[in-house]
Design goal:
Length: 161
């Protein structure tokens, strides 16, 4: 007797406010979707090529396609410019290794310490991965470039000091 009133009241409140029933039905799935742990991001399998999208300030982005190597995992790392002076401060390049990426590799530090810019992996579909780069109170730019004398591509990241 009281049970139907409780059930009707809960459903009625949800129907009126839109929160009760919706939250009860979709809340757990939405919570899981939006709070996916970085370590739960799917990885590309060994030997697969990976398309890395890198976003910086104001929604600007570039992509870098990294070829896969047999029985090796493909990842993205940062390197300092080889030429001095350079029109960029850091470059992101493709690398392969025999070991799979650790959860700590969801961050790419672009400098030597914690106060410098960082890129964080924000989404992954295995062969398509997205990194967002930021630097406190500075605007970053990203440009797709090619090493002179080779077909090797990389992403150049720059900021004003």
């Amino acid at each position: 007797m009281i049970a139907p009133k409780v059930i009707f009241g809960a459903l009625g409140c949800g129907a009126l406010s839109g929160a009760g029933t919706t939250g009860a039905l979709f809340g757990p799935a939405a919570f899981k979707y939006f709070h996916e742990s970085a370590s739960d991001l799917p990885e590309a399998k060994a030997g697969q090529k990976v398309l890395f999208k890198v976003s910086v300030s104001e929604g600007k982005s570039e992509t870098l396609e990294c070829a896969g190597e047999d029985k090796k995992f493909t990842t993205l790392i940062s390197e300092k410019p080889t030429n001095s002076p350079s029109d960029y401060k850091v470059k992101l390049v493709c690398r392969t290794s025999t070991g799979q990426r650790s959860p700590q590799a969801n961050e790419i530090k672009l400098g030597g310490n914690d106060t410098e810019p960082i890129c964080k992996r924000v989404s992954s579909r295995g062969i398509e991965q997205h990194f967002a780069c930021f630097y406190k109170e500075k605007d970053l730019t990203v440009t797709s470039k090619e090493e002179s004398g080779s077909q090797k591509k990389y992403l150049a990241i720059n900021w004003t000091s």
